[in-house]
Q: What sequence folds into this?
């Protein structure tokens, strides 16, 4: 492959040593592989690394992408152990502490880490509950405390929480409480389970449907392709949120929340798969004419084998990048739907549901900590965007960093 | 080497390095060349040996972010008589811009992508004319039509208003040549101008270039890996390997009496018509080294069939030496 | 070019037809119909629901007929401008939706305009100053803009409006102007009220456009014809703006086509948050109350807006790029 721009040629002469993804130069690819196998034993430089290792190394160079990845891992891990990390249950109410502000952690050598007690007042000017800090009441925060029982990861029955305080009727509210006196931090941690998994499930479903249909459509062409194109066109003519609104409004009121969760996942992927299918179809159309496909066919491979063993791996990098970049959309969509009260139903909670409380402006003015779930949504989406961007740059063999 | 007043362009010990995340690439590592007025110099070598980077360095077209001319001089004699060192000129300044397209012009390898797809061919040529020759739009258009006619394009008035994608490859390259020559440059740099074209079109383009060279009385630096092109059009040849010139001299001398083992290998590996069918092609053994770790001095040493010779004891110290008048070689065997 | 447009328009018709069928099916998905939800409302308020009276109303409204008959009745009314009857508001759908759709359209168009005005220059700057601190900063801002959900931005905006500036920013015109006749002041007031929602709506899209402009321009700057232009001796600004940007902007026009759905969707949600008389609030209510003709017509028209937007984007692309002709 000759390129005329010399700086590209510098990159190209190093990258023709790497196996280029997508079979861009498949015949070179086969020859190179043989040559590389022969010399691989002598050379121990970067040429010995496989394509995936090269992508990984490139990915590691982008600090934002790595940061994004770490944040996401942290978020998912905390969602996994949400019940353990959260001091309280989803619905545990503290009647004496409605709309309590976030409490600061203090430390002194006598009592260790503690929080200060709160005195409730009723403010006649603003007609709302306010709290003043009672410096005399120190409540030590203990680790690995016994609290409400739950099932760790849905398997082991236990009642140990990471931290909490011993006093009854009062609690440690690191992010404040809501209208019913429920701890915001606990609700957000447990709510993250819903928010994060719906996005994941939705993307996975879109992925499966989208890649199979997209690749098949591109590979077979003809009337299969025509029908698919029409179908995709019709679905994409609908604006997404109004369509989702209409579909979720169709869910019967009497359905159990788990079924609603599943249904919402399906609904979200209803539009999601079209995006991936279209992208993949385009790529497959290009790859279909490449020689390695022809070679496989001439060797007698069945259509299914060609699709699954050759075309899908060639597009795998692209699939991963597009899926990662689709996650934020799913999470935002679920949040929006739940925020509008047509998404998840209690007792299931997600960040979007939590934000419903923030809709009331008066509450928001006095109790701005109700907006915390929004910050987490933004953080998650930001992290996914960084990660997806980094993956995309890493899998592009020609980008220079 | 002091500046030779007879030379149109003199490159003295040019070093252009690329700083990438994987290491430093010494693309041009001590190249010295000279081109006399109206002379055609062929710059030959394998892909990746640095010939294109050399050409780009002359016109300072390399991306400034990670690429730098480390040292060396590029002395150019301008039309008005003054001499300027292009290596030290500001790549975005007025001086280099007044030379580009005007006194030194360049044509590129891929005619498909070398012209802007969203502007008409005529407007692109007229723009160069209007820029350097300070004439009005109408006059520039007229001259552009004239140029298209000179490069052999039929119906130049109509072609002026067409978009490049409507042209064939050969026509596009002719249009590129027209654009490059529109301001009567003293030096034309042609970077693999025929590589992307069909065989028959290649011959036509070379013919076109030869006749235009005589007509416009300009020098040409033609960069290619195709020895046939060199034989056809060049007066002198310089052979490059991994960023250094390994041999240079008049065309006939290099073709009939190559001295450097690499040049010998190149000449031998060209399939020739009229040979016995059963004769095997003789490739050069080994492969081009990793651009990040080019051996110092004689870069060809690891592949050289003559390396067991006692003379090659110190391949790092070898320099370009004049073996006979006009014929220079960088080889331990001829030091 | 004209044949291209006509062919695309004709191609839209079967799609529109399928969309209308799908819309109708979706609207009919919730079990029961408007009467059932009315029944539920009536039941919860305590007064008895007369079964017979409900059935009678059902019959009058034609809700007891098979689904395809209802569909045909609905569609056949289109050509007369009759889009059905809203049970909730007790008037023809056409009267209700016209203003709201117009406003959604206005908001989306404003948003689109802002998006381009802001994103394109910043994207160009970002690409030409790659790796500079300002580039990194702009990229960061772009990412944040992409990540914050627009309904949240809407909330923040309301918050700031009421409690920091003391003005009411919800709604479309200030209270004082509401009843006043149309005048220049009213238009300015309208513009003021629409400005920020348009910006909020376009925030995500602007960020996206910025990133794509940057990426596209970076890629274009590496192409051969840019080097050719430079080798001609042209000024760097001309090389970038006249040659590179002209080609780099083509993908953006395609992207614009893809952003229209997001704008329309976003306008729906934002309308609810900011209480703007756009389609959002009314659509939501129609869905929850199963006011099916109203909901269906809304959905249909939103889709129509989308398709028209896509068509315009395709036409713009064909017009701008001489390589794409009559495909």
A:
């Amino acid at each position: 492959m000759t390129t005329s721009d010399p700086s590209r040629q510098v990159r190209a002469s190093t990258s023709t040593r790497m196996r280029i993804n997508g079979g861009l130069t498949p015949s070179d690819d086969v020859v190179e592989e043989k040559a590389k196998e022969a010399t691989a034993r002598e050379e121990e430089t970067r040429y010995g690394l496989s394509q995936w290792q090269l992508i990984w190394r490139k990915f590691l160079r982008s600090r934002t992408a790595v940061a994004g990845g770490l944040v996401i891992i942290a978020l998912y891990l905390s969602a996994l152990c949400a019940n353990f990390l959260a001091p309280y249950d989803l619905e545990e109410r503290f009647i004496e502490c409605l709309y309590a502000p976030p409490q600061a952690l203090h430390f002194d050598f006598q009592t260790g880490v503690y929080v200060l007690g709160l005195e409730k007042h009723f403010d006649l000017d603003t007609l709302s509950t306010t709290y003043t800090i009672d410096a005399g009441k120190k409540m030590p925060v203990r680790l690995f405390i016994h609290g409400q029982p739950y099932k760790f990861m849905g398997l082991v029955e236990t009642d140990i929480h990471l931290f909490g305080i011993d006093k009854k009727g009062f609690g440690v509210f690191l992010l404040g409480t809501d209208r019913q006196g429920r701890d915001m931090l606990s609700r957000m941690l447990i709510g993250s389970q819903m928010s994060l998994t719906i996005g994941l499930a939705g993307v996975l479903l879109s992925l499966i449907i989208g890649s199979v249909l997209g690749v098949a459509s591109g590979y077979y062409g003809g009337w299969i392709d025509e029908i698919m194109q029409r179908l995709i066109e019709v679905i994409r003519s609908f604006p997404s949120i109004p369509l989702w609104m209409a579909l979720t409004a169709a869910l019967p009121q009497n359905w159990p929340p788990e079924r609603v969760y599943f249904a919402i996942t399906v609904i979200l992927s209803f539009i999601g798969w079209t995006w991936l299918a279209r992208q993949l179809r385009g790529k497959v159309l290009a790859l279909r004419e490449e020689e390695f496909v022809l070679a496989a066919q001439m060797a007698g491979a069945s259509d299914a084998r060609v699709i699954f063993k050759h075309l899908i791996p060639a597009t795998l990098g692209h699939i991963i990048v597009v899926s990662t970049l689709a996650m934020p959309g799913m999470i935002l969509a679920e949040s929006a739907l739940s925020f509008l009260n047509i998404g998840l139903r209690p007792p299931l909670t997600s960040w979007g549901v939590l934000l419903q409380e923030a809709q009331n402006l008066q509450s928001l003015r006095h109790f701005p900590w109700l907006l915390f779930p929004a910050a987490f949504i933004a953080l998650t989406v930001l992290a996914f965007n960084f990660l997806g961007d980094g993956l995309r740059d890493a899998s592009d063999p020609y980008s220079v960093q | 080497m002091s500046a030779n007043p007879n030379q149109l362009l003199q490159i003295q010990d040019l070093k252009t390095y690329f700083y990438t995340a994987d290491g430093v690439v010494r693309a041009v590592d001590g190249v010295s060349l000279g081109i006399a007025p109206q002379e055609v110099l062929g710059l030959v070598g394998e892909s990746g040996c640095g010939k294109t980077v050399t050409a780009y360095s002359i016109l300072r077209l390399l991306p400034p972010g990670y690429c730098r001319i480390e040292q060396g001089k590029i002395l150019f004699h301008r039309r008005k008589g003054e001499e300027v060192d292009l290596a030290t000129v500001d790549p975005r300044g007025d001086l280099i811009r007044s030379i580009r397209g005007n006194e030194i012009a360049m044509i590129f390898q891929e005619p498909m992508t070398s012209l802007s797809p969203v502007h008409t061919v005529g407007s692109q040529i007229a723009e160069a004319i209007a820029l350097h020759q300070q004439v009005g739009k109408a006059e520039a258009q007229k001259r552009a039509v004239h140029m298209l006619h000179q490069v052999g394009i039929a119906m130049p008035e109509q072609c002026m208003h067409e978009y490049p994608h409507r042209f064939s490859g050969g026509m596009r390259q002719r249009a590129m040549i027209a654009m490059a020559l529109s301001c009567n440059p003293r030096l034309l740099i042609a970077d693999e101008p025929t590589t992307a074209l069909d065989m028959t079109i290649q011959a036509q383009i070379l013919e076109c270039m030869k006749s235009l060279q005589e007509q416009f009385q300009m020098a040409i630096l033609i960069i290619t890996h195709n020895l046939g092109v060199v034989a056809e059009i060049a007066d002198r040849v310089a052979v490059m390997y991994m960023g250094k010139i390994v041999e240079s001299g008049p065309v006939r001398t290099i073709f009939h009496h190559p001295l450097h083992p690499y040049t010998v290998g190149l000449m031998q590996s060209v399939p020739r018509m009229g040979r016995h069918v059963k004769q095997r092609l003789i490739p050069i053994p080994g492969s081009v080294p990793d651009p990040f770790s080019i051996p110092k001095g004689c870069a060809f040493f690891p592949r050289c069939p003559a390396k067991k010779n006692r003379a090659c004891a110190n391949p790092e110290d070898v320099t370009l030496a004049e073996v006979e008048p006009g014929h220079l070689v960088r080889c331990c065997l001829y030091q | 070019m004209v044949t291209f447009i006509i062919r695309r328009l004709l191609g839209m018709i079967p799609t529109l037809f399928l969309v209308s069928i799908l819309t109708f099916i979706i609207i009919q998905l919730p079990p029961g119909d408007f009467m059932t939800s009315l029944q539920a409302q009536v039941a919860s308020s305590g007064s008895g629901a007369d079964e017979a009276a409900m059935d009678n109303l059902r019959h009058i409204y034609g809700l007891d007929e098979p689904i395809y008959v209802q569909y045909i009745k609905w569609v056949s009314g289109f050509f007369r401008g009759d889009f059905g009857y809203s049970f909730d508001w007790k008037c023809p759908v056409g009267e209700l939706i016209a203003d709201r759709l117009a406003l959604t359209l206005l908001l989306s168009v404003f948003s689109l305009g802002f998006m381009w005005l802001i994103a394109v220059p910043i994207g160009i700057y970002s690409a030409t100053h790659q790796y500079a601190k300002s580039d990194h900063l702009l990229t960061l801002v772009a990412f944040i803009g992409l990540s914050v959900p627009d309904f949240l931005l809407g909330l923040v905006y309301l918050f700031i409006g009421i409690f920091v500036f003391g003005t009411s920013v919800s709604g479309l015109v200030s209270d004082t102007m509401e009843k006043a006749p149309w005048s220049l002041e009213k238009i300015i007031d309208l513009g003021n009220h629409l400005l920020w929602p348009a910006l909020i709506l376009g925030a995500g899209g602007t960020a996206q456009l910025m990133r794509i402009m940057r990426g596209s321009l970076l890629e274009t700057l590496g192409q051969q014809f840019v080097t050719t232009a430079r080798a001609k001796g042209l000024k760097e600004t001309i090389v970038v703006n006249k040659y590179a940007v002209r080609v780099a902007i083509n993908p953006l026009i395609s992207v614009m086509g893809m952003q229209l759905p997001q704008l329309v969707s976003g306008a729906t949600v934002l309308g609810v948050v900011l209480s703007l008389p756009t389609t959002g609030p009314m659509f939501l209510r129609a869905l929850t109350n199963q006011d099916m003709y109203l909901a269906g017509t809304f959905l249909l028209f939103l889709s129509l807006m989308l398709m028209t937007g896509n068509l315009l984007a395709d036409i713009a692309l064909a017009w701008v790029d001489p390589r794409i002709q009559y495909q």
